[in-house]
Amino acid sequence: MSGMFEGNALPGIQTHSHTPNNYSPQELSLEIKAFISGVDQTQGRKLSVRDHARCAIRLLRTVPACREAVLEHLRGVYDEYVASFLQDLEAEGENGGNSASGGASVSISNLEDVIKEVHAVLSEFIKLSPKAWAPLVSSWAVDLLGQLSSKHAGRRAAPHSSSLNELLQLWMSCAATRSLMECYSQCLAAMLAWCPDACVDALLDTSVQHSPHFDWVVAHIGSAFPGTIISRVLACGLKDFYAHGYSSAEKISQQQAIDKSSRVPKIGSVVGILGHLASRHSDSIKKELLRMFQDSLSVPPQNVPQLTSGAGGWENSPHLRRATVPFLLQLAALSPTLLGAVSTELVEFLRPPVLIQLQAQFQALPREELENMLGLAVHLISQSPSGGARVLKFLADTATPSSVIISGPTPSPHDGIREACDRLLQMLLLHLHKLVHNRPDGDEPFPQSSTSPAMPQVIPFLEELQAHIADLCAETLRLERKRHLWLHQLLCLLSVYGGPSIATEALCQLFTQARNPEELALASQLYTQLSTSLSGLLPSTVARCVAQIHTQTLDIKELAQLLNNLATAVQSQEEDGKNGGGTTTTTGSLTQSSMASEVRVAVSSNLQDFCPLLLHGDSGVSKAAVRLLSCSQIPRACSPAHLLRICRAAVSHFFVCLRQQGKSPQAGQEEVGYSRRLLSRLAAYSSLSQKAVLQQLVEGALHKGNQDLFGGLQENPSDDTTQAQNLVPDLGISLLDVNRKFGTSVNFSGNVWSVFHAGIIGKGLKPPYTPLHPDPDRVSQNMQTLLAVMVQCCSSSGGNPTGSAGSTCSEPNVSDKLPPINAEAAKVIAVTLVENICPDVANGELSWPPEEHSKTTVERDIHIRRCFEKNPVLFYLLHVVAAGRPALCYCSVILRALLSTLLAHWESSREPSVSDSPWHLQTSCWLVSCMGEGQLLPPVLSNINEVFPHLSPFEVRLLLLGVWEYMRGNSPMPQKFTFCADQGLFFRDFSRDGDVARYIAPIHSVLHKNIDRLGHLCWRFQV
Amino acid sequence: MSDIRHALLRRDPLSAAKEVLYHLDISLGSALQSSAGPPAGLEKSTVELVEEFIFHVSKDRNIQSKRMSCVQELQLLEIICSYFQEQSKDAIRQVIFSALFSLQGNKADESRMAMLGKLVSMSIAVCRVPILECAAIWLQRTHSAWCVRLAQVLMEDYCTLVPCAISTLQNICSASPRFCCQLITAVTALYDFSTDELTPPPALLEMLVGWITEDPRLLLLTFINSPLNSSLPLGCLEITPLLGLLRWCVKAPLAYHRGRKSAMTNGHGDGEKGTAYEELYSKLHLSVLQVFLMLQVHLTEKNMFCRLTVLPVESVAALIEEVGRLCEKLAPLLDASHIQLALDRLAQALQVAMATGALLCAREDLRALCSRLPHNNLLQLVMSGPVVQPPPHSSPFQPNMYPHIHPGRPSPLSPHSPHQSTLSSPHSPHTVLTAHPTHPALAPHRPLTAHATHPALSPHAFHPASIAFPYRPIR
What we know:
By secondary structure, chain A is mainly alpha-helical. Helices cover 67% and strands 1% of the residues of chain A. Classes of the chains: A mainly alpha, B mainly alpha.
């Protein structure tokens, strides 16, 4: 049994024999003596640095009581290594001798082994017994790092403390300092579990003592333990902030000097540390700061045991909680980086319950401290690089009264909060006003830097708000109580601060977003306040609006709104102009008039940019555009290209309006009015624009897409085919298509027989085509509108604009009431009609050939007649041409075509009465009347249309044949007309044409034959 | 004295400290030689010099005291060690040690304790026996709170800071047994199992078991060397570490739940560690019981049997009350086996202590003390005690009974020792069997007869002889 017991004890003995602690007490005693004296006790020689360090390491392993002395001794070893390291770097930099470099290298190599051994021992100890070694080694390492950083900061090899990365690179390349850093990191990692405060406190104290040379240590440690360093640094800073006399004003006043000297370095160190970490760990810093703010307001946890480590200690201290908000404000004041990190999201935490708690906290503060805090908050808001827009929204939302009903004699907490935010907002505006106008005041709690007035200060709050102009304008235009006043004032400050570009943007946004005249008045007010300090605002604003339109950032509603607002701004001047003649205008009216005139000029300068909007797909936008353009004047220096583009857009819009008018008469009518006004202005601008407008109006009226507006018939597919064949040379129809269509049939285009397509052999006559008839009233209305526009355009002469054109509708047949039509304008219409109706230019001369000669142009004549059949508007247009004498001369080819086809019709007609051909009868009467109006026929001949309804077809033919003979004998030439200045018209003297008696002989014959029914008309035909 | 002080103020801290030591040596040595009797108290001026120039407590507000660096402090410690090593007269050493480190109740005591800790720690490393002997006396005379602090410093140095440094501490057992005895007492006062930090480190436990197993008399060293009629100062450490060690053995199973949680978290390894701890505590318990038996012999030799208090009843009562509170608190957390183990150990200790005269306590009082403890069979046996005899026979029975037991007690333990070791290794609950030899002397019950029915166990065959012998006078 005893042997078994001894066997059990034997392994322990063997285990002990293998441990390195096999020094005898005597040997340890000698080691201690050697360490103290630096002399080897057995050989009596002096220990080298390396041997002395190794002796220290042995004591560190074996004699616990020597640990502090050993660490103290090792400070010297590390210092010597660093000195050699830097000296070696400097020697290399200076290209020193090889021997010196070799010596330094040997020295560093020797000590490096020692340092590695020390590091290994300490690392092992920290790993095995963290609670025992970590506090000791961490304080030793941090203090030594601080000393080394400061001591060697002046060396040539050491970079300047401002270049943190270079400093970090240098020190981390040195084995000694890298070893210390790793030791400290290991200690900090170990101590996180139970008392991180002590570790971070040492770091902070060393940072205060050795900053800025020590910053690289903080940066490195912060990168390794960002969360812990951030939270502990903030907690330690808060405690220090409270300890340095924040608690009472009396204490502050008593120890002002001491507090200032001792307070700033600590919080400055906190700011420096967090500043270094912000480049990579801004999110962590933000979370910690916001969590700190939240915890300071939340109820402390109940029944939670007090942690001895103090990790969460500050949350349980009422005093520290109360000091948190001032501490955070102070931090933000000292560090723009921290201010930027927090201000972005801080407003999200400011919910009503949080605000109530804040108010409860601050009620206990003395008034002076509260005022200082408010001033500091205002300063911070103005200096916040980001999040300013959200802060502003929060303040405005909270400060806006929610209801006009008085809540009662006792104000509720919400009222207090609202009043506080109101006051804060007022202070902010005042502060910004001072900053913007660069008038620092003696009472300013935070005096500005001493920059010269020539260089404006940068205000981060306003810098950020410049990107939120649209939102600010939208909020301002809501016209809420007091809110829009604040925001309007802020817009003024922002515009003055930002310069013309910001002011332009603000005005542009107001013009874009205002929904009614009341809201639009804000733009006038803003312009009033800004025009004194900024010039050229409105041209820039309109240019900005144009740019906005080009980028298509606005939706349809916004685009229409913008155009309407601009039009309203322009119209206000005209109204004032009308009223200004007889009455005295007020100051506001004068200002508005001034703005209106400038807007008008600016819009005119950008007219070519607005005119494409006339053709916008949305009716609201196009209507607003035509309204704006109708109020504006065309610039004097408008280029022909721009002018033609505007004319084309305006004419296209006119036809769109006519179609819209059919759908909604009320709105369409208003829009048509704007369009007519615009076209009149364009026609009155110059002869070029007049010609362009008239030409495009004619072409538009004859366009297939618009024929139905004026009673035009829908085309028959068969007719279309025939027409297509006839128009091959003009339309460029593919011959291949034609050949495919008819197979082996040969196209006899131009052949006289191909025109008469009466039907299909074996199937009888072609069935008659029944077209869709549009609403007669609508057609009549559109016709009247078109004629009115054309008359207006023809009445205006280039270079002689009229103030306002009359909008009266005149009957086309009542020539006496028509205003005088410009001959050149009528000529434009005539030429355009000929170009659009006559398919070819052959035989287009003005003179009339013999009637038999018309056989050669029968196909063309029939085509022209069909055009008139499909487009009744042509009759009215010709009438306008006739009114503008001598323009009808240029329509000879059209007149001949119609007369020729009518002669053929009446000759071949077998009807007993002409009333059986109503279209032909009407056309015959109209044609003769028109030629009479155009003074191509003498009155005695033009009056024959009155007897046509009473004659037989043959008799009508005889009379029309007489007309042809007269035209052949008296060709219509413009030269035959004479201008009468008093009436503004051209007249033709028929007496110079010779005797007309021989041309009226057939008339008399017909009259004699029908004397019983036409006797009362004989006087109309007396020569 | 003023002249000396002014001269010292002009010197560097280390030189000044040396001069103070020299001054102490000269003055105190002379005083001892001149007076025939015990020396009088230290002069106040001497104490002030020591405090100002060795412990750097400034006496003048206007003068900032110079502090030594850590290396200089180490030099001073080395000088003190050398001085005590070279001083041949024990009386002078004691006086000077007392002059340096006797607590004065002022703010210098903190510096005193710091330097004392370093000095003793260093002396352990380099095995300075004179200092260790002086420290042992210091531990004997100083309030337990300060003793605990010194123990804490030493435990941190040798059990926590430096790995494997415990072997250095282990070696001083042969050099200074008195210091080790006092250190054990202080260490048991330091570690009370209240938290993880205040649980004895495994290395320390192993070392103590080794010390006591090697030389059980170590635990009685202070007791034996103390004057018989001397009364302990109020608040000082106990006269022996027996009660402290007993507290450890009883409380260890109740603290097992923390270790078990750790085992669950870390896996099987910690489970094995727990088993190793249990084995160590079992060995420690056995050693304590053996020391009680040795104590009986000593008391008998001094003719102080049942007259001298070794385990104060008040301390035992406090332990029992604490165990009761712990059992009640930890019942939901622990297995019943752990509680039973703790109570078994308590019962065994109480039985042996009362039998050997270490604990003077009537059974009626014991029953009252243990009334709130959970049920335990062995404890019930201990509390019930022997059968009450008729009055005419009680007086002649007792004197006859005890003399007969004493001569035969050591011999039965010898053959049982290996048996108990063997049984203790695999199954710690079987330590209950270690108490069986004591039953025949005090508790003749039928269960003993039941044990005789297990013929397979050869050690039990020995019991009939023992059983027959003590019962012969009764029958």
